[in-house]
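Why this split exists: single-chain examples teach little about how molecules sit against one another. For that reason, every record in the complexes split bundles all components of an assembly together and asks for one structure covering all of them. Below is a record exactly as it appears in the raw files.
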Amino acid sequence: MIGRFGEYGGQFVPETLMAALAELDDAFNAARMDDAFQNQFVDLSAHFTGRPTPLYFASRLTEFCGGAKIYLKREDLAHTGAHKINNALGQGLLAKRMGKTRIVAETGAGQHGVASAAVCAMLGLECIVYMGTEDMRRQAPNVYRMKLLGAEVRGVDAGSATLKDAINEAIRDWVTNVQTTHYLLGSALGPHPYPTMVREFQAVIGHEARAQMLATEKRLPDLLIACVGGGSNSIGLFHAFRDDDVAMIGVEAGGLGIASGKHAARFAEARPGVLHGTYTYVLQDDDGQVRATHSVSAGLDYPAVGPEHAHLFDTERVGYTYATDDEALNAFHQLARLEGILPALESAHAVAEAIKRAREMPRDEIVLVNLSGRGDKDLQTVMSASGEQ
Amino acid sequence: MNRIEEKFVELGTQQRAALMPYLPLGYPTVEESQDLIRVIADAGADMIELGVPFSDPLADGPVIQHATQVALKNGVTLAKCLAMARAARDAGVTIPLILMGYANPILRYGIAAFARDAQNAGVDGLIVPDLPPEEAGAFDAATRAHDLALIFLAAPTSTPERLQKIAAATRGFVYLVSVVGVTGARAQLAADLSSFVARVRAITSKPVCVGFGIANAESARQVAQIADGVIVGSALVNKIGNGNAIQAAREFIAELRGAINHKIE
């Protein structure tokens, strides 16, 4: 069985897509070995995306917690405001290489949609972005941003009108237009080769952070923390440290709390199943129907998790926990006040966990948090949660 | 011999294609849907595909997607689908019954328990649209142990190597997806359908049935000239969703049956 992480992963898709997945797998493997492709990716990562992103010592947040030193990997400073651009760039170049002229993408918070739209504009590709109408409401500025970048945003009313349903529609579009279209999937999930491919395009985060940490502190961090929706920013950070003696925590969306049932904490229930082409942990009811999720952050509001994370959970290489909506909002405000940085609400989940953990760790230890995106897109959500509108 | 194989032997002697409607269980209501199985069988269907609802049916177009969402609201589960098949058998339905449903509800139910219970319910086959042969190991073993035909789909995009693999793995028949796309009635048949059917016939002696996109009696008639079976889904769902489901289904199935009652050329 191909594309497995332990027992997770695979290719559970309609037959119509199987040839396209094989073509994509071949193209990705060839591109990995092709210096011209790699050079173009590295060059555009530097001059289009703005890599390397900085490693920032959060001194006031560290002082506030009174424990371990907290460093932030500033993916929020990448072009279009989140780590999503790394993968969008890689897949965009791959789509060109395969001769595809049309891109479909899905987006939850809008970060992946904006990144895809920007890359498509830069490469001259047609771009269609599927987005749940509930997410369009929550992330209105990003919808407009995508349109400015030349993408067509198609609202999805089905189901819960969020990320899961946007992925369903993107896959239906891909099934229908597979000969001309590449599906630019935005996270380390879906059928093989997506989980591996997206991880490889995001692994730049961890490779940079590791080198930057060694340069700054002359040592590796003790703990890595990243939020986990589909799981691409976290796997991108974790991958470079997989063989190091470094602890890792992935933070899911705890929503209104696990007991409320309104959350997206897949590891809190750990029920394996198939969604969107991959065998992984899926929030589902006793009859195997996928459950509605809730999170204040549209980007974490997804009922399945990337299959490599399911394997990392089983093998206990990574610990998984969650932050509630309230904890994430508090962390959002604390980072803003203490460091002058508005984190994406997704990233604020990781910051919330960092605040908890750093307090309990000695001052000579180091926590590295992936600040996966910036929070400008979340102002409306934060305003209404704070009673400002 | 499995009921599906028997049916194709019988149809072979008549040199006629099978009419195979797709019925989403629990739509428009559970009660009507239960009655529709018998009504459709009586009206001339040769086999019935019974649709198991799933929350995220990514191979389906808007019509079946909507019907399965209604079915879920009506409380239909995989266990209830099995009970409905059993009730149809008890009501005298003797034609092959094939469940069509996505992988996850079956995985949650347990593959072995599902295969056992499906056999006990009088089910003859299983179609899982998100299960290519590569992922089907456990499904294949369990369905073989309980005399269920695990039926695989072939698509116009399938490579020659994949068509070989699908034809070898499938039991009962090969399910040809006539279009590059999701389920849903299309105004016209795909232009290259007959060459696609010919490509599959060239590599297998198993029956070849065509589904996805067959909108009306005329399309069904054309498909019946080249294939061993005609699968009609969204077009039937459209008919039964517009009130008086029983009468609409009876008339539409009779019309389709009339259109394909000719010999395969």
